[in-house]
Amino acid sequence: MPCYRLTDDLWFPPVEEAEDCGLLAVGGDLSPERLLLAYSLGIFPWYNQGEPILWWSPDPRCVLFPAELHVSRSLRRALRRHSYRLSFNENFAGVIYWCRGLRAGLDGSGTWITPEMRSAYLRLHELGFAHSVECWDADQLIGGLYGVSIGGCFFGESMFSRRANASKIVLVELMRYLREKGFVLLDCQQTTSHLLSMGAREISRGDFLRCLKEAKTPPYGPLVSQF
Predict the structure, then answer these.
(1) What pLDDT score does 89 carry?
(2) Beta-carbon neighbour count of residue 127 at 10 Å?
(3) Is 225 within the bounds of a domain?
């Protein structure tokens, strides 16, 4: 299948034309308009420093439905024991900082959260579309995650943990919130054993696109964040 090169025009090719690995297009920019269009079509950016922007729509897609969250006995015990404080959107910049810092090498090259990506998602946060969940021990930020909310879908981007179970605790809190607000799903993008252990599963790209329609993401609904 061809890999499309994007221009300055605001468009994406059909996701069905992605390569087997999920790569769909190269180039373009990280403007809020392009990012929101991409997510609403089931596409996300993922690339390393020094590479052109790469746009992906993998098949299958890893997702977590709110009703299918699995909380292990050990995690339930940790939830009962901990005295951590949880918050939403209290330190979005700090969450991105730690998500990037815990993955980067000494030269900062070991993460896909490039300075351009960081700036782009900070802008989405300012516009009300990107959100974070934080876990605090006193005044220390020990865990968190961030992502993009459009319609009834939350597109997860990254999470971090500086203490045992901290990232799992914020994921449980996020899923509680999404279930309470009637969200359709959490898009996990990439499949990991960590997410599978908490109830995530892979679905086909076609099923994922049908979920986006149910979640009323554009073009099936208004461009709004329900978070």
Answers:
(1) 98
(2) 12
(3) no
Q: Is 157 in contact with 118 (CB distance < 8 Å)?
A: no
pLDDT of residue 1: 57
* Contact status, residue 125 vs residue 73, Cβ threshold 8 Å: no
Cβ burial, residue 21 (10 Å; 0-12/13-18/19+):
exposed
Work out the pLDDT band at 146, boundaries 50, 70, 90. very high
Residues 42 and 67 in one domain: no
Where in the sequence is the domain holding 159, given as residue range(s)?
Answer: 62-214
| DSSP class per residue in 180-213 | HTT--EEEEES--HHHHTTT-EEE-HHHHHHHHH
124 within 8 A of 138, measured Cβ to Cβ: no
Alpha helices in 10-136 (DSSP H): 32-40, 73-81, 92-101, 115-126
Instruction: Examine the pLDDT at 152 and tell me if it is beyond 80.
Output: yes
